[in-house]
């Protein structure tokens, strides 16, 4: 992926709300959104510019 | 604050795991002081295995393991039994109020088999060491029993072996990749209907379990309180998504720190609480510091990573409707029961000949407490140093701002709202 591109991650295990944002940040990416839609979870991760 | 705001803030949005674990540490110390036993689940699950064995015509009352841990009465008459019922109900209630209950089927039969085998190995390891991530770890270390330290250390080593196994090509789960944004969230009306229904079901579960607590209060104060503690434990582990497997496994995969710090800090506050209770006359639960503790921890670490969840982890995930974790739970009960069946050989060789070491007696009360706290601090330092192996290199100024924002805002908002305007000065 290149700078500015966005990755949408969808999971159905709530534990990912603890893991994915922390991992994204630790690897230098921007976690722009953490959303819950009932039993599904959506994360938006951007490759920083 | 309107009810809708309250619901979004506290019932739907997940709680930060560190305060949740601190609360669990405090509550577990009170639980010990009030009930005289520690917050634990696998011993009771093994008793359930014993009841099933009795139904099949065996005589588990005569097995030496059940003479050791007791098999009197039914789960409804035991502190551990009613606490676990409270935990399941608390987790179910929390998941329903977050609209997070749905039957989620495993992606493959292979994953399911992995869950069963991992569950059996974890259950076997846990009962061999006389505890799981609770009794030989989160609530075992605050009993000042040396065996829990051996179990914690070897669980982390076992998790490393588990990670190596799970990374074998035939055990990897394929991910679905797509280039278009997901359309899974289009039907908002359906989600709103789901939320309303689950709210009502959550209310029903709450009424039923509170009725159950009242019924148990009539039997005894301690049984009634155990139900209430169980509800609290179950609700908090679901709301905080407290996953000990993630804490141990992710030391080796991504270097995550939050849950590991939370668990260690939770044990610090629990140690202070149980120390007070023991000083006032409560009897700590101390077990053999034998090869059973180290071997049990190793097997437990491997098993939980293979299964994807430990004892507390499978309990709340099972209530969320994750079918995989029903199978992990069944595996745990089978594994624990296997230890009970073969305890004469296992215990005789690996546990019973070895001493039960109470650090408060062995080292003196003050030194035992201070060394336990120092050990937990050292573990936190090791978690921090381990995380640095995985960190990407970044400029000092950017690293400091990131850290400060992270501590203040707890995450995402920090980088998205504060960092972009600062970026020109940070690179």
Write a structural description.
Chain A has 49 residues and is of the alpha+beta class. Chain A has one helix at 16-26; strands spanning 6-11, 30-37, 40-46. Chain A is globular, with a radius of gyration of 11 Å. The model of chain A has no long low-confidence stretch (mean pLDDT 90). Chain B has 427 residues and is mainly α. Chain B is 72% helix and 0% strand. Chain B contains 20 helices and no strands. Chain B has helices at 3-12, 17-35, 42-55, 64-69, 79-97, 109-128, 134-138, 146-166, 188-219, 221-240, 244-253, 258-279, 291-307, 311-319, 323-341, 343-350, 359-362, 365-388, 396-409, 412-426. Chain B is globular. The interface between A and B is large, with 28 and 45 residues.
Q: Could you estimate the helical fraction of the residues of chain B in percent?
A: over 70%
Question: How big is the Rg of chain B?
Answer: 22 Å
Indicate the overall shape of chain A.
Answer: globular
Give the low-pLDDT segments of chain A: none
Q: Could you estimate the helical fraction of the residues of chain A in percent? A: 10-25%
- What is the N-to-C succession of helices and strands of chain B? HHHHHHHHHHHHHHHHHHHH
Label the structural class of chain B: mainly alpha
Which geometry of chain B do the CA atoms define?
globular
Provide a count of the helices of chain A.
Answer: 1
Largest interface: A-B, 28 and 45 residues
The tally of strands of chain A reads 3
Topology:
The complex is a heterodimer of chains A (49) and B (427).
Chain A: E1 6-11, H1 16-26, E2 30-37, E3 40-46
Antiparallel strand pairs in A: 1-3, 2-3
Chain B: H1 3-12, H2 17-35, H3 42-55, H4 64-69, H5 79-97, H6 109-128, H7 134-138, H8 146-166, H9 188-219, H10 221-240, H11 244-253, H12 258-279, H13 291-307, H14 311-319, H15 323-341, H16 343-350, H17 359-362, H18 365-388, H19 396-409, H20 412-426
Helix pairs in contact in B: 2-10, 2-12, 3-15, 5-9, 5-10, 5-14, 6-13, 6-15, 8-11, 8-13, 9-10, 10-14, 11-12, 12-18, 14-15, 19-20
């Amino acid at each position: 992926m290149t700078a500015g591109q966005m990755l949408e991650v969808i999971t159905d295990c709530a534990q990912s709300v603890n893991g994915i944002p922390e991992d994204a940040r630790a690897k230098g990416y921007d976690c722009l959104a953490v959303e819950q839609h009932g039993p599904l979870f959506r994360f938006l991760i951007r490759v920083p510019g | 604050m309107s009810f809708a705001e309250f619901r979004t803030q506290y019932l739907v949005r997940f709680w930060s795991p560190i305060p949740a674990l601190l609360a669990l540490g405090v509550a577990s110390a009170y639980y010990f002081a009030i009930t005289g036993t520690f917050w634990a689940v696998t011993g009771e699950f093994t008793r359930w295995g014993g009841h099933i064995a009795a139904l099949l015509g065996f005589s588990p009352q005569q097995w030496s393991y059940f003479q050791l841990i007791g098999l009197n009465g039914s789960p409804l008459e035991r502190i551990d039994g009613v606490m676990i019922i409270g935990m399941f109900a608390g987790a179910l209630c929390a998941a329903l109020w977050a609209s997070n209950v749905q039957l989620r089927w495993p992606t493959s039969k292979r994953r399911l088999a992995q869950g069963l085998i991992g569950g059996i190995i974890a259950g076997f390891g846990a009962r061999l060491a006389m505890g799981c991530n609770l009794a030989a770890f989160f609530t075992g270390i605050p009993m000042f029993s040396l065996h829990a330290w051996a179990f914690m250390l070897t669980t982390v080593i076992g998790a490393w072996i588990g990670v190596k196994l799970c990374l074998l090509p035939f055990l990897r789960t394929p991910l679905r990749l797509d280039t278009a944004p997901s359309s899974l969230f289009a039907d908002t009306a359906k989600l709103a209907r789901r939320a309303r229904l689950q709210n009502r079901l959550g209310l029903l579960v709450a009424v039923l379990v509170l009725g159950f607590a009242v019924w148990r209060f009539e039997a005894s104060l301690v049984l009634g309180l155990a139900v209430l503690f169980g509800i609290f434990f179950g609700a908090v582990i679901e709301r905080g998504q407290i996953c000990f497997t993630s804490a141990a496994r992710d030391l080796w995969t991504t270097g995550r720190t939050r849950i590991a710090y939370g668990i260690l800090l939770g044990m610090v506050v629990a140690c202070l609480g149980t120390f007070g209770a023991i000083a006032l006359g409560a009897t700590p639960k101390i077990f053999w510091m034998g090869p059973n503790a180290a071997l049990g921890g190793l097997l437990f670490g491997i098993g939980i990573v293979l299964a994807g969840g430990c004892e507390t982890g499978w309990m709340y995930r099972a209530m969320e409707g994750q079918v995989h974790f029903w199978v992990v739970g069944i595996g745990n009960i089978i594994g624990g029961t296997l230890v009970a069946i073969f305890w004469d050989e296992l215990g005789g060789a690996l546990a019973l000949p070895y001493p039960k070491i109470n650090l408060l007696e062995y080292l003196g009360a003050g030194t035992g407490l201070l060394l336990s706290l120092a050990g937990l601090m050292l573990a936190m330092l090791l978690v921090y140093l381990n995380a640095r192996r995985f960190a990407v290199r970044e400029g000092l100024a950017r690293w400091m701002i990131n850290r400060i924002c992270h501590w203040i805002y707890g995450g995402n908002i920090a980088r998205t709202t504060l960092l972009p305007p600062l970026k020109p000065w940070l690179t």
